[in-house]
Amino acid sequence: MELSTSQRFYERAQKLSPAGVHSPVRAFKSVGGTPIFFERGLGSKIYDVDENEYVDYCMSWGALALGHAYPAVVEAIQTQAALGTHYGTPTPHDVELAEIILSALHPFEELRFVSSGTEAVMTALRLARGVTGRDKIVKIDGAYHGHVDSLLVAAGSGLVTQGLSDSAGVTKGSVNDTLVIPPGRTEALDHVFAEHGKEIAAIIVEPVMANNGLFELGKEYLQYCRDISKKHGALLIFDEVITGFRLAWGGAKAYYGIFPDIGTYGKIIGGGMPVGAIAGSKFVMEHLAPIGKVYQAGTLSGNPIAMVAGIANLRGLQKTNFYETTRELGLYMDEKIARIQKNAGRKPFGFRRIESLFWFSFGSSQMPTTSQEILPHAKPLYAEIFHGALDRGVYLAPSAYEVGFLSSSHTKSDIDKLVSVIEKI
Ligand SMILES: Cc1ncc(COP(=O)(O)O)c(C=O)c1O
Q1: Out of 26, 112, 140, 283, which residue is the most buried by the measure of CB atoms under 10 Å away?
Q2: Is the pTM above the cut of 0.85?
Q3: Which residue blocks in 197-321 are alpha helix, DSSP H?
């Protein structure tokens, strides 16, 4: 595969930014090799600067539910851009996008737009602390909530671990109020609330853990989080930056029928433009400034180009029958993968799919049940698969721990390509 133009960009980029990238996983550090530079996308395909075509299963890390350059999103962006890129004022578009989002998120009543998932989570934590007057946040080991200081924590294997940052530059003070519990174990929830119940402002969960492998916490566990937080006067935050509008129109909250106090959103609601949101009841949300005392602001919040892209993207979910289309593709994928396993006479790898999210676990036929169980040799094996797929025109996320995303632009022949590439490798 010809990659010389990408190589030249990489040489220039390395002199200009750390590892030549603007978000670390893009650097291919965990799979080896050098990043590829892209310049075009259409539907399920992306094209690099050397004009190589790839079927894309990373889909802008899940933001592009409808595929690349979805016509209504492109048109909305072009129309708005000609009218000005940003005014720093309310616009009709933020009203319209908020109405669409809130109509899906019943019983949430209000939301506020920000510019990224991280920003949404950061605000949600501050809001939970402001509402409850408490400091501590319970986080699940292995969950990712963006690069918020207090949530960049590694945890031990105990029932409850005091947060210890796994990033340089995060003060002990920032993680002092983070309590980390292992995923899926209700006794850990009992333990943390028994010990710290009166100090806990909120539990934050990724309702489907999709940043460190793919793990379903399950309805019962989520219900337990709901019940125990309520019992102790703490809030429950669902971080739906990935699951929002993906698992279902109403996100994980509707999918499981469990209602948190605060939801955080990003990715799909901006259709590839930088948008995040925090949503909750009127009571909770009106603790935010200028009504309440919890300060939050943003120069580019509610950016009109991002708002119109979000509107077109969410409407497109319905127009393209996103949920039915991706479910059908997913079932087709399951069948094809099962056939590889059968032909091989054993399971050379594990595969898990939850609606339009999927994840391969290489190195063992046993599917890990938590991210802690991912075997160390899964990483080099994934690197082989990743590069083998890349050479054959399939773009997977450049990390063994990241999930794949189906969009309504993928076709059965795209799935055939992915499956045959994996079978060959
Ligand atoms: C569950 C979850 N929360 C928060 C974030 C952070 O979002 P962003 O990268 O837009 O800051 C991510 C990003 O992948 C995420 O998956």
Answers
A1: 140
A2: yes
A3: 219-231, 251-256, 282-285, 304-319
71-81 and 304-319 helices, crossing angle to 10°: 160
Which string of DSSP letters, residue by residue, matches 46-62? Answer: EEETT--EEEESSHHHH
Residues 410 and 115: their CA atoms lie apart, in Å, by: 27
Say which CATH class 4-66+321-424 falls into. Answer: alpha beta
* pLDDT tens sequence across 232-291: 999 999 999 999 999 999 999 999 999 999 999 999 999 999 999 999 999 999 999 999
Pocket of ligand 1 (CB under 6 A): 61, 116-118, 121, 144-146, 206, 211, 239, 241-242, 266
Confidence of residue 222 (pLDDT cuts 50, 70, 90): very high
Query: Ligand 1 pocket check: which of 26, 121, 262 to mutate, most ligand atoms within 8 Å of Cβ?
Result: 121
Residues designated catalytic: 144, 239, 267
Query: How many other C-beta atoms are found inside a 10 Å radius of the C-beta of residue 344?
Result: 12
Number of Cβ within 10 Å of residue 422's Cβ equals 22
Between CA 198 and CA 347 the distance in angstroms is 48
pLDDT per residue over 173-188, tens digit each? 999 999 999 999 999 9
CA angle, residues 325, 146, 63, in degrees to nearest 5:
25
What are the domain boundaries of the chain? Answer: 4-66+321-424, 72-319
Nearest CA to ligand 1 atom 7: 117
pLDDT band at 163 (very low <50, low <70, confident <90, very high): low
Reply yes or no: is the peptide bond before residue 107 cis, omega within 30 of 0: yes
Write the CATH number of the domain with boundaries 72-319: 3.40.640.10
Angstrom CA distances, 100 to 68, 90, 359, 368, 376, stand at 22, 16, 30, 37, 43
C-alpha 267 – ligand 1 centre gap (Å): 8
Ligand 1 atom at minimum distance from 62 CA: 14
| 34 Cα: distance to centroid of ligand 1 (angstroms) | 24
